[in-house]
From TrEMBL:
<dbReference type="GO" id="GO:0008202">
    <property type="term" value="P:steroid metabolic process"/>
</dbReference>
<dbReference type="GO" id="GO:0016491">
    <property type="term" value="F:oxidoreductase activity"/>
</dbReference>
<dbReference type="InterPro" id="IPR020904">
    <property type="entry name" value="Sc_DH/Rdtase_CS"/>
</dbReference>
<protein>
    <submittedName>
        <fullName>Estradiol 17-beta-dehydrogenase 2</fullName>
    </submittedName>
</protein>
<dbReference type="Pfam" id="PF00106">
    <property type="entry name" value="adh_short"/>
</dbReference>
<dbReference type="InterPro" id="IPR002347">
    <property type="entry name" value="SDR_fam"/>
</dbReference>
<dbReference type="InterPro" id="IPR036291">
    <property type="entry name" value="NAD(P)-bd_dom_sf"/>
</dbReference>
<keyword id="KW-0560">Oxidoreductase</keyword>
Protein backbone atom coordinates (compact mmCIF):
# COMPACT_ATOMS: atom_id res chain seq x y z
CA UNK A 1 0.00 0.00 0.00
CA UNK A 2 2.72 2.44 1.01
CA UNK A 3 4.76 1.47 -2.04
CA UNK A 4 1.75 2.09 -4.32
CA UNK A 5 1.17 5.54 -2.84
CA UNK A 6 4.85 6.37 -3.26
CA UNK A 7 4.81 5.16 -6.88
CA UNK A 8 1.74 7.29 -7.68
CA UNK A 9 3.31 10.32 -6.02
CA UNK A 10 6.59 9.82 -7.92
CA UNK A 11 4.72 9.44 -11.20
CA UNK A 12 2.72 12.61 -10.63
CA UNK A 13 5.91 14.46 -9.72
CA UNK A 14 7.63 13.36 -12.94
CA UNK A 15 4.57 14.33 -15.00
CA UNK A 16 4.43 17.72 -13.28
CA UNK A 17 8.11 18.32 -14.04
CA UNK A 18 7.62 17.42 -17.69
CA UNK A 19 4.59 19.71 -17.97
CA UNK A 20 6.54 22.51 -16.32
CA UNK A 21 9.52 22.06 -18.63
CA UNK A 22 7.69 21.43 -21.88
CA UNK A 23 4.58 23.58 -21.48
CA UNK A 24 4.51 26.10 -18.64
CA UNK A 25 8.02 27.48 -19.12
CA UNK A 26 7.41 27.99 -22.83
CA UNK A 27 4.43 30.30 -22.38
CA UNK A 28 5.55 33.80 -23.31
CA UNK A 29 4.37 37.21 -22.16
CA UNK A 30 1.78 38.54 -24.59
CA UNK A 31 2.37 41.60 -26.78
CA UNK A 32 6.05 41.96 -25.92
CA UNK A 33 6.48 44.21 -28.94
CA UNK A 34 4.39 46.78 -27.09
CA UNK A 35 6.71 46.70 -24.09
CA UNK A 36 10.28 47.77 -23.39
CA UNK A 37 13.22 46.49 -21.35
CA UNK A 38 15.97 48.36 -19.54
CA UNK A 39 19.36 46.62 -19.43
CA UNK A 40 22.32 48.06 -17.54
CA UNK A 41 25.95 47.26 -18.31
CA UNK A 42 25.67 46.95 -22.09
CA UNK A 43 29.25 47.98 -22.87
CA UNK A 44 30.91 45.34 -25.01
CA UNK A 45 34.19 45.37 -23.07
CA UNK A 46 37.50 43.87 -24.27
CA UNK A 47 35.77 40.74 -25.62
CA UNK A 48 32.95 42.10 -27.75
CA UNK A 49 31.11 38.81 -28.16
CA UNK A 50 31.39 37.89 -24.48
CA UNK A 51 29.22 40.40 -22.65
CA UNK A 52 25.90 39.44 -21.10
CA UNK A 53 24.23 42.85 -21.37
CA UNK A 54 25.48 43.50 -24.88
CA UNK A 55 24.34 40.12 -26.18
CA UNK A 56 21.00 40.25 -24.34
CA UNK A 57 20.20 43.61 -25.92
CA UNK A 58 20.86 42.20 -29.39
CA UNK A 59 18.80 39.06 -28.70
CA UNK A 60 15.82 41.09 -27.49
CA UNK A 61 16.05 43.46 -30.46
CA UNK A 62 16.03 40.51 -32.85
CA UNK A 63 12.82 39.34 -31.16
CA UNK A 64 11.10 42.66 -31.78
CA UNK A 65 11.40 43.95 -28.21
CA UNK A 66 12.30 47.59 -27.59
CA UNK A 67 15.45 47.94 -25.49
CA UNK A 68 16.80 50.75 -23.35
CA UNK A 69 20.50 49.88 -23.12
CA UNK A 70 22.61 51.80 -20.64
CA UNK A 71 26.34 51.99 -21.32
CA UNK A 72 29.09 53.50 -19.21
CA UNK A 73 31.06 54.91 -22.14
CA UNK A 74 30.38 56.50 -25.51
CA UNK A 75 32.56 53.82 -27.08
CA UNK A 76 30.36 51.10 -25.63
CA UNK A 77 27.21 52.83 -26.83
CA UNK A 78 28.62 53.26 -30.34
CA UNK A 79 29.62 49.58 -30.48
CA UNK A 80 26.12 48.46 -29.56
CA UNK A 81 24.44 50.79 -32.04
CA UNK A 82 26.82 49.64 -34.77
CA UNK A 83 26.13 45.97 -34.07
CA UNK A 84 22.36 46.48 -33.84
CA UNK A 85 22.22 48.35 -37.13
CA UNK A 86 19.45 50.73 -38.11
CA UNK A 87 16.56 50.08 -35.74
CA UNK A 88 14.08 52.31 -33.98
CA UNK A 89 13.70 49.81 -31.14
CA UNK A 90 17.12 50.49 -29.58
CA UNK A 91 17.44 53.39 -27.17
CA UNK A 92 21.10 53.41 -26.14
CA UNK A 93 22.19 55.98 -23.59
CA UNK A 94 25.04 56.63 -21.20
CA UNK A 95 24.47 56.05 -17.49
CA UNK A 96 26.94 55.68 -14.64
CA UNK A 97 25.30 53.48 -12.00
CA UNK A 98 27.63 54.89 -9.33
CA UNK A 99 26.26 58.42 -9.79
CA UNK A 100 22.89 59.56 -8.44
CA UNK A 101 22.77 62.41 -10.95
CA UNK A 102 23.56 60.12 -13.89
CA UNK A 103 20.90 57.59 -12.87
CA UNK A 104 18.30 60.33 -12.44
CA UNK A 105 19.21 61.69 -15.87
CA UNK A 106 18.84 58.18 -17.29
CA UNK A 107 15.46 57.80 -15.60
CA UNK A 108 14.24 61.07 -17.13
CA UNK A 109 15.36 59.89 -20.58
CA UNK A 110 13.67 56.49 -20.27
CA UNK A 111 10.42 57.96 -18.94
CA UNK A 112 10.33 60.51 -21.74
CA UNK A 113 10.93 57.94 -24.48
CA UNK A 114 8.37 55.55 -22.97
CA UNK A 115 5.78 58.29 -23.02
CA UNK A 116 6.57 59.25 -26.62
CA UNK A 117 6.48 55.64 -27.82
CA UNK A 118 3.46 54.78 -25.64
CA UNK A 119 5.16 51.71 -24.20
CA UNK A 120 5.43 50.30 -20.69
CA UNK A 121 8.67 49.31 -18.99
CA UNK A 122 8.21 45.56 -18.70
CA UNK A 123 11.50 44.61 -17.04
CA UNK A 124 14.70 45.97 -15.56
CA UNK A 125 17.77 43.77 -16.00
CA UNK A 126 20.41 44.89 -13.51
CA UNK A 127 23.49 43.51 -15.23
CA UNK A 128 26.26 46.07 -14.61
CA UNK A 129 29.17 44.69 -12.61
CA UNK A 130 32.94 44.66 -12.14
CA UNK A 131 35.45 42.23 -10.62
CA UNK A 132 37.81 44.68 -8.95
CA UNK A 133 41.06 43.75 -7.25
CA UNK A 134 41.44 40.08 -6.36
CA UNK A 135 43.90 38.92 -3.70
CA UNK A 136 44.02 37.84 -0.07
CA UNK A 137 42.53 40.40 2.29
CA UNK A 138 45.95 41.36 3.67
CA UNK A 139 46.86 42.78 0.26
CA UNK A 140 43.66 44.80 -0.12
CA UNK A 141 42.47 48.17 1.13
CA UNK A 142 39.06 49.38 2.22
CA UNK A 143 38.70 51.30 -1.03
CA UNK A 144 39.09 48.06 -2.99
CA UNK A 145 35.89 46.86 -1.35
CA UNK A 146 34.14 50.21 -1.77
CA UNK A 147 34.97 50.43 -5.46
CA UNK A 148 33.41 47.07 -6.29
CA UNK A 149 30.41 47.50 -3.98
CA UNK A 150 29.67 50.90 -5.51
CA UNK A 151 28.96 49.19 -8.83
CA UNK A 152 27.80 45.67 -7.98
CA UNK A 153 25.74 46.52 -4.89
CA UNK A 154 24.91 50.19 -4.51
CA UNK A 155 24.80 50.72 -8.27
CA UNK A 156 22.17 48.01 -8.64
CA UNK A 157 20.18 49.33 -5.66
CA UNK A 158 20.41 52.88 -7.00
CA UNK A 159 19.01 51.86 -10.38
CA UNK A 160 16.24 49.70 -8.90
CA UNK A 161 15.20 52.49 -6.53
CA UNK A 162 14.92 54.94 -9.41
CA UNK A 163 13.13 52.76 -11.96
CA UNK A 164 10.87 50.55 -9.88
CA UNK A 165 8.14 53.20 -9.91
CA UNK A 166 7.78 52.45 -13.64
CA UNK A 167 7.69 48.72 -12.97
CA UNK A 168 4.97 49.11 -10.36
CA UNK A 169 2.73 50.87 -12.86
CA UNK A 170 3.28 48.14 -15.46
CA UNK A 171 3.36 45.21 -13.01
CA UNK A 172 6.70 44.30 -14.51
CA UNK A 173 9.72 42.47 -13.19
CA UNK A 174 13.23 43.03 -11.85
CA UNK A 175 16.01 40.68 -12.92
CA UNK A 176 19.25 40.86 -10.95
CA UNK A 177 22.52 38.99 -11.34
CA UNK A 178 24.42 37.60 -8.35
CA UNK A 179 27.10 34.89 -8.40
CA UNK A 180 27.82 31.34 -7.37
CA UNK A 181 30.46 32.91 -5.11
CA UNK A 182 27.54 33.43 -2.73
CA UNK A 183 27.40 29.65 -2.23
CA UNK A 184 31.07 28.68 -2.27
CA UNK A 185 33.60 31.19 -1.03
CA UNK A 186 36.73 31.43 -3.17
CA UNK A 187 39.88 32.77 -1.47
CA UNK A 188 41.11 36.02 -2.93
CA UNK A 189 37.73 37.26 -4.21
CA UNK A 190 36.86 39.33 -1.15
CA UNK A 191 35.56 42.56 -2.76
CA UNK A 192 33.61 40.72 -5.47
CA UNK A 193 32.14 38.11 -3.13
CA UNK A 194 31.16 40.70 -0.52
CA UNK A 195 29.38 42.82 -3.14
CA UNK A 196 27.52 39.82 -4.55
CA UNK A 197 26.46 38.60 -1.10
CA UNK A 198 25.08 42.07 -0.42
CA UNK A 199 23.10 42.41 -3.64
CA UNK A 200 21.77 38.87 -3.28
CA UNK A 201 20.54 39.76 0.20
CA UNK A 202 18.86 42.88 -1.17
CA UNK A 203 17.14 41.00 -4.00
CA UNK A 204 15.97 38.29 -1.61
CA UNK A 205 14.48 40.92 0.69
CA UNK A 206 12.45 42.09 -2.28
CA UNK A 207 11.55 38.64 -3.56
CA UNK A 208 11.64 35.93 -0.89
CA UNK A 209 9.27 35.23 2.00
CA UNK A 210 6.17 34.80 -0.13
CA UNK A 211 7.52 37.39 -2.56
CA UNK A 212 7.06 40.22 -0.10
CA UNK A 213 7.64 43.94 -0.74
CA UNK A 214 7.61 44.08 -4.55
CA UNK A 215 5.07 41.27 -4.80
CA UNK A 216 2.60 43.63 -3.13
CA UNK A 217 2.63 45.49 -6.45
CA UNK A 218 2.61 42.33 -8.61
CA UNK A 219 6.26 42.94 -9.51
CA UNK A 220 8.36 39.78 -9.85
CA UNK A 221 11.96 39.79 -8.62
CA UNK A 222 14.15 37.19 -10.31
CA UNK A 223 17.72 36.20 -9.49
CA UNK A 224 20.20 34.89 -12.06
CA UNK A 225 23.09 33.07 -10.34
CA UNK A 226 25.79 32.10 -12.85
CA UNK A 227 29.02 30.22 -12.36
CA UNK A 228 32.24 31.32 -14.05
CA UNK A 229 31.96 32.26 -17.71
CA UNK A 230 34.46 33.53 -20.23
CA UNK A 231 33.72 37.26 -20.10
CA UNK A 232 35.83 40.38 -19.67
CA UNK A 233 35.57 39.88 -15.89
CA UNK A 234 37.48 36.61 -16.13
CA UNK A 235 40.52 37.87 -18.02
CA UNK A 236 43.52 35.96 -16.71
CA UNK A 237 46.15 38.37 -17.99
CA UNK A 238 44.42 41.37 -16.43
CA UNK A 239 44.05 39.58 -13.09
CA UNK A 240 47.72 38.56 -13.14
CA UNK A 241 48.82 42.14 -13.82
CA UNK A 242 46.53 43.44 -11.10
CA UNK A 243 47.92 41.04 -8.52
CA UNK A 244 51.48 42.04 -9.39
CA UNK A 245 50.59 45.68 -8.78
CA UNK A 246 48.94 44.76 -5.47
CA UNK A 247 52.17 43.13 -4.31
CA UNK A 248 54.14 46.23 -5.26
CA UNK A 249 51.90 48.55 -3.25
CA UNK A 250 51.76 46.30 -0.16
CA UNK A 251 53.67 47.41 2.93
CA UNK A 252 56.94 45.77 3.88
CA UNK A 253 55.58 44.12 7.03
CA UNK A 254 52.95 42.15 5.10
CA UNK A 255 55.46 41.22 2.41
CA UNK A 256 57.80 39.78 5.02
CA UNK A 257 54.97 37.86 6.68
CA UNK A 258 53.97 36.11 3.46
CA UNK A 259 57.14 36.09 1.42
CA UNK A 260 57.28 36.63 -2.32
CA UNK A 261 57.28 32.87 -2.94
CA UNK A 262 53.82 32.65 -1.34
CA UNK A 263 52.38 35.42 -3.47
CA UNK A 264 53.83 34.04 -6.70
CA UNK A 265 52.47 30.60 -5.87
CA UNK A 266 49.02 31.96 -5.04
CA UNK A 267 48.96 34.26 -8.06
CA UNK A 268 47.87 31.56 -10.54
CA UNK A 269 45.79 29.80 -7.89
CA UNK A 270 43.67 32.87 -7.21
CA UNK A 271 43.24 33.51 -10.93
CA UNK A 272 41.04 30.46 -11.37
CA UNK A 273 39.34 27.89 -9.21
CA UNK A 274 39.18 25.16 -11.86
CA UNK A 275 42.95 24.78 -11.57
CA UNK A 276 42.40 22.75 -8.41
CA UNK A 277 42.37 19.74 -10.71
CA UNK A 278 44.31 21.06 -13.69
CA UNK A 279 47.17 22.16 -11.48
CA UNK A 280 47.82 18.54 -10.48
CA UNK A 281 48.76 17.66 -14.05
CA UNK A 282 50.23 20.85 -15.52
CA UNK A 283 51.37 22.74 -12.44
CA UNK A 284 49.79 25.82 -10.97
CA UNK A 285 52.35 27.99 -12.78
CA UNK A 286 50.32 27.65 -15.96
CA UNK A 287 46.93 27.94 -14.28
CA UNK A 288 46.61 31.64 -14.99
CA UNK A 289 46.98 30.91 -18.72
CA UNK A 290 44.26 28.27 -18.50
CA UNK A 291 41.66 30.46 -16.81
CA UNK A 292 40.21 31.73 -20.07
CA UNK A 293 39.78 28.17 -21.35
CA UNK A 294 38.53 26.58 -18.13
CA UNK A 295 35.78 29.14 -17.60
CA UNK A 296 32.70 28.17 -19.58
CA UNK A 297 32.65 29.60 -23.12
CA UNK A 298 28.87 29.26 -23.27
CA UNK A 299 28.02 32.83 -22.29
CA UNK A 300 24.81 32.39 -24.25
CA UNK A 301 23.52 30.26 -21.36
CA UNK A 302 23.41 33.33 -19.13
CA UNK A 303 21.92 35.42 -21.93
CA UNK A 304 19.24 32.75 -22.48
CA UNK A 305 18.47 32.71 -18.74
CA UNK A 306 18.07 36.49 -18.80
CA UNK A 307 15.89 36.24 -21.91
CA UNK A 308 13.63 33.60 -20.39
CA UNK A 309 13.36 35.65 -17.20
CA UNK A 310 12.03 38.67 -19.08
CA UNK A 311 9.91 36.95 -21.74
CA UNK A 312 8.37 33.94 -19.96
CA UNK A 313 4.88 34.28 -18.55
CA UNK A 314 5.95 32.14 -15.60
CA UNK A 315 9.66 32.78 -15.03
CA UNK A 316 11.73 30.87 -12.52
CA UNK A 317 12.43 32.67 -9.26
CA UNK A 318 16.11 31.77 -9.50
CA UNK A 319 18.25 30.61 -12.42
CA UNK A 320 21.34 28.51 -11.65
CA UNK A 321 23.46 28.83 -14.79
CA UNK A 322 26.49 26.72 -15.64
CA UNK A 323 27.68 23.23 -14.77
CA UNK A 324 29.87 24.57 -11.98
CA UNK A 325 26.92 26.38 -10.42
CA UNK A 326 24.69 23.29 -10.56
CA UNK A 327 27.21 20.54 -9.85
CA UNK A 328 29.78 22.25 -7.61
CA UNK A 329 28.57 25.36 -5.82
CA UNK A 330 24.98 24.36 -5.05
CA UNK A 331 25.85 20.88 -3.69
CA UNK A 332 28.77 22.37 -1.73
CA UNK A 333 26.46 24.90 -0.08
CA UNK A 334 24.30 22.08 1.33
CA UNK A 335 27.18 20.16 2.88
CA UNK A 336 27.52 20.29 6.68
CA UNK A 337 30.36 22.58 7.84
CA UNK A 338 32.66 19.68 8.72
CA UNK A 339 32.47 18.32 5.15
CA UNK A 340 32.91 21.80 3.68
CA UNK A 341 36.08 22.22 5.76
CA UNK A 342 37.33 18.81 4.65
CA UNK A 343 36.68 19.70 1.01
CA UNK A 344 38.55 22.99 1.32
CA UNK A 345 41.45 21.22 3.06
CA UNK A 346 41.64 18.69 0.23
CA UNK A 347 41.63 21.44 -2.39
CA UNK A 348 44.40 23.29 -0.56
CA UNK A 349 46.38 20.04 -0.39
CA UNK A 350 46.18 19.19 -4.10
CA UNK A 351 46.88 22.82 -5.01
CA UNK A 352 50.02 22.68 -2.88
CA UNK A 353 49.22 26.04 -1.34
CA UNK A 354 52.40 27.22 0.40
CA UNK A 355 52.62 28.46 3.96
CA UNK A 356 53.41 32.12 4.71
CA UNK A 357 57.09 32.77 5.30
CA UNK A 358 56.73 33.47 9.02
CA UNK A 359 54.88 30.16 9.50
CA UNK A 360 57.73 28.10 8.07
CA UNK A 361 59.78 28.95 11.14
CA UNK A 362 57.10 30.40 13.38
CA UNK A 363 58.15 33.71 14.87
CA UNK A 364 55.53 35.41 17.02
CA UNK A 365 57.36 38.72 16.96
CA UNK A 366 57.21 38.71 13.17
CA UNK A 367 53.43 38.37 13.36
CA UNK A 368 53.13 41.31 15.75
CA UNK A 369 56.14 43.60 15.23
CA UNK A 370 56.97 46.30 17.73
CA UNK A 371 55.67 49.84 17.32
CA UNK A 372 58.68 50.88 15.28
CA UNK A 373 58.23 47.96 12.89
CA UNK A 374 54.51 48.29 12.17
CA UNK A 375 53.68 49.61 8.72
CA UNK A 376 49.98 49.60 7.92
CA UNK A 377 48.32 49.52 4.53
CA UNK A 378 46.68 52.87 3.74
CA UNK A 379 42.90 52.74 3.69
CA UNK A 380 42.75 54.56 0.37
Amino acid sequence: MIFSIFAVFATLLVVALFVDRLVVRRIRVKRLEEKALLITGCDSGPFKKFCFGFDLALKCLSSGISVFASCRTQKGMDALQSKAGMTDRLFAFMMDVTSDASVQKGFAFVRKMLKESQKDLHALVSNAGILGNSAFDDFLRVNDYKQVAEVNTFGAIRVIHSFKVLLKSSRGRIVGITSSCCRGHIPGTGPYSVSKHAIQGYLEVLSENNRQEMRLFDVDVIIVEPGFFRTSLVNAETIETTMASLWERTNQTTRLQYGEHFFKKCDPILCGYYVTVIGIFVGTETAVKLLSTTSSPHTEWVVNAYYHAVTARFPQRRYQVGYDSLLVFVPFSFLPPILQDATVWFIRFIMRLPRPAIMENFNRSACVPDDNGIELNPTT
